[in-house]
Here is the input.
Amino acid sequence: MSDKNKIIKCMSCNRDIEKEIYLLNLQVCPYCNNHSYISARERIQITTDENSFTEQNGNLSSVDLLKFFDLKSYPDRLKEAKLKTSLSSAIIVGEAKINRDEVAVGVMDFSFMGGSMGSVVGEKIKNLANLSIEKNIPLILFSASGGARMQEGIVSLMQMAKTVSSVRRVMEKKIPYISVITHPTTGGVSASFSTVADIIIAEPGALFCFAGPRVVKQTIKKDMPPDFGMSERNLKNGQVDMIINRGEMKETLSKLIRLFKG
Here is the structure.
């Protein structure tokens, strides 16, 4: 491998990082703490116990109910997303262990059509909530989404109510529900299941808002604060309970699970 291939350039501070150090640091810049994007499967690997994850509903896939076509057909977009990510939808759900404690965990993947919440995302979260209730184990959801999926129209918007009612049933059973916000979490996801948890955790520097700063600026014709929608501003305003570095996430979740268990 050439020296050039051993170097990663941070997207935030623009400093060079040795690739090995970058990967060992879970794709977090050791200089500015910028948390880069990681896939859903990578996040499951670093957050749950080794070989403990059992996927649920892995083959569920959206269908073209509206015969939607923009620059290309919806089936073509789905096919491209599946080839790009090796996923069937924008979320992976299943049962796993975190430091030997059983959990029902779901992780969204922004690289699958912007993590947009279509009918399959809603169905998977509902089924995961049912698993949490059936086994009486904590529910943990990692969010990363640009919002609703326009190719599914009103069906996509209906997933907001579906997911909220699903996680509410978990909470009504006195089962812990923890929401973890990763960059970015916006739109219908930020306005539904990601904000109704017992505990809301965010990664540093994650954009967490309903409409992003560019959209808001276009609407109100005013510049936004530089930290608009960022985790740190949301913590200050009480929108999130804590900001946790990626390397500390597993231990933090483990402590919270055991705290809830008493």
Notes: The longest strand covers residues 177-185.
